[in-house]
Please model this.
Amino acid sequence: MYNYATLDHIAKIGTDLFSTDYRRVEEVERADAILVRSSKMHEMAFSDQLLAIARAGAGVNNIPLDRCAQEGIVVFNTPGANANAVKELVIAGMLLASRDIVGGIDWVKANAADPDIGKAAEKVKKQFAGRELTGKKLGVIGLGAIGQRVANTALHLGMNVLGYDPYISVGAAWNLSRNVQHVSNVEEIYRNCDYITLHVPALDSTKGMISKAAVQQMKEGAVILNFARDLLVNEEALLNGIDAGRIRAYVTDFANPTVAGAQGVIVTPHLGASTAEAEDNCAIMAVEEIRNYIENGNIINSVNFPRCDMGECSAESRLAVLHKNSKGTLAAITSIVGDADVNVADMTNKSRDVYAYTLMDLDSALPKDLVAKIDALESVIKVRVVK
Ligand SMILES: NC(=O)C1=CN([C@@H]2O[C@H](COP(=O)(O)OP(=O)(O)OC[C@H]3O[C@@H](n4cnc5c(N)ncnc54)[C@H](O)[C@@H]3O)[C@@H](O)[C@H]2O)C=CC1
Ligand SMILES: O=C(O)CCC(=O)C(=O)O
Model:
């Protein structure tokens, strides 16, 4: 029997995929797996029992990835599962910043009791007039699951799209329309674009990337959209740009005291992934990842350990070893197995930066002290008998 805990609302269609071998527990200390969305986990202590954390979403800046790796906890996310939901809200954000839709709706609400509201509306509407997206330049920074979808959709709206992503994956590049103009210097986007949208993860290298200097280079009347993370933007600098009349609007999905209620800012309460479809997709993918890891030892879509997929085990037993990516570790593991007179039927060893993973199918049952011997190796983090 395995225990799982949820720190946030996880769609039932996903948790229903747990078999009767799993039960939900309230106490995270008793969990073999944790499902999380945006809850902050940096200050949490993890028990030895915890095998995996699945982020039902894309961004993992709420999880201490390296500490988890050191403690033998595999962290997963659900790439692309909520990307369409975010894309649709970004398009809505561009429209909200271009036409005074909110101002117009507020005016109608405030004048609802006026019997001549129709006549009054015709008089007042010029104050809510805006501009169109067609023909404008959109700069997309980060062309992953979301950025690539935003770029392609904006082309259909008649926008000219510039894309910047020095680390674009082959998969994302294949999905990107060839009509998206590739730029290798992000400043080209700052200088030329009427709309700039951010779709990069919050990493040390991206935090504050929309700096004061970046804001100063931006085109007069630019609209900045941030559905990625607020840490990416020097929001004070952006608000100064708005006050000075240079920046038309800042659309952000991250409410904080700096932006909430500020003039020229449209703030939504982290709604990017809040659609039934995205919540279902994320929950399903997260539960499948956890089950595949717990039941088969396979690691798919981890953000702190390498990918490793050996399918279901048809051999007598399967051993999973999370370890440091250090010289001699694999040889030490295989020699312990060899000394125990156990034949290796199949094996995969993968590494990712300083961590590695060895998955081993064996032709016979595991001798009693084999796990303890592997566990005693200095570079081994966690050994698990999967079967
Ligand atoms: N508002 C919301 O509810 C949501 C927000 N997000 C945020 O959006 C981010 C992006 O999500 P996805 O597109 O699904 O992730 P992704 O991993 O598919 O794409 C991220 C892209 O950013 C690129 N990148 C990394 N560093 C860069 C840099 N310095 N300059 C330009 N490009 C860079 C990567 O190469 C990658 O192509 C997430 O990390 C998360 O923070 C994601 C989902 C929902
Ligand atoms: O779970 C959510 O609603 C937040 C989604 C998000 O920010 C992400 O996937 O990175």
In short: The radius of gyration is 25 Å. The first strand starts at residue 2 and ends at 6.
